[in-house]
Design brief:
This protein is mainly α and 210 residues long. 57% of the residues lie in helices and 0% in strands. The chain has a single domain, classed as Ferritin, CATH 1.20.1260.10.
């Protein structure tokens, strides 16, 4: 069972891994606090809801992990917007839906942190996390031949979506806040639809984390 401490980053990391991804192998190095390509439209702090929310350790760890994961995917989509090779209308539509859902999700996640009186922290900086679009992975994508970019990007997106489903299941099993658990359920449903929309595209199968 995960404890309730909120200030020890190493404890949070271990709690999330044990609770939601016992067989997951962590990869990639996260440096999202220094990212310069984060979408400008994302608020740094959302207005707290009227009612306070009580967050346990799993709730807090779930939110603090999902925030940089979503930021990384939005940076990836922004990069793809600049490339003619990613101009497939069907792919653009899927990416647009993913962007809209992730932006709304970030607002809800930050609102819950504020309602729980917990500051947003990049507690995963320097840690290797599965399913995260790190600066290193973005750099590799930018350096790849343009013809390979769409399939590589879809692979990264798929890994992100699949890992989020794992995290959402763990939050629903071990989370303490009904509000956060309900959000995790909605996110899981959205991720399933996004994975279905990506199915059949080059890069939609295989392991982008290797």
């Amino acid at each position: 069972m995960i404890g309730t401490g909120l200030k020890t980053s190493g404890w949070r990391i271990a709690g999330v891994v044990v609770t939601v991804a016992a067989t997951t192998v962590a990869v990639g190095l996260t440096r999202h606090s220094d990212r310069t390509d984060r979408p400008a439209a994302l608020p740094s702090v959302a207005v707290a809801p009227t009612a306070a929310v009580l967050l346990n350790g799993t709730d807090d760890a779930f939110i603090q992990l999902l925030l940089p994961m979503d930021d990384g995917v939005l940076a990836l989509i922004d990069h793809l917007d600049t490339l003619p090779s990613a101009a497939d209308p069907a792919l653009r539509a899927v990416l647009g839906d993913i962007r809209t859902a992730h932006r709304a999700e970030l607002v809800e996640l930050r609102r819950l942190l504020a309602a729980g009186n917990v500051p947003e922290q990049n507690i995963h900086e320097g840690h290797q996390m599965p399913g995260m679009v790190t600066d290193d992975r973005l750099a590799e994508l930018r350096a790849a031949p343009e013809a390979e970019v769409p399939s590589r990007a879809v692979g990264l997106l798929r890994a992100h979506l699949e890992q989020t489903v794992v995290l959402c299941r763990g939050e629903q099993n071990a989370g303490g806040s009904p509000e956060v658990k309900a959000l995790a359920g909605r996110i899981q449903t959205t991720r399933a639809a996004e994975l279905k929309a990506l199915a059949g595209r080059p890069g939609a199968t295989g392991d982008a984390d290797n």
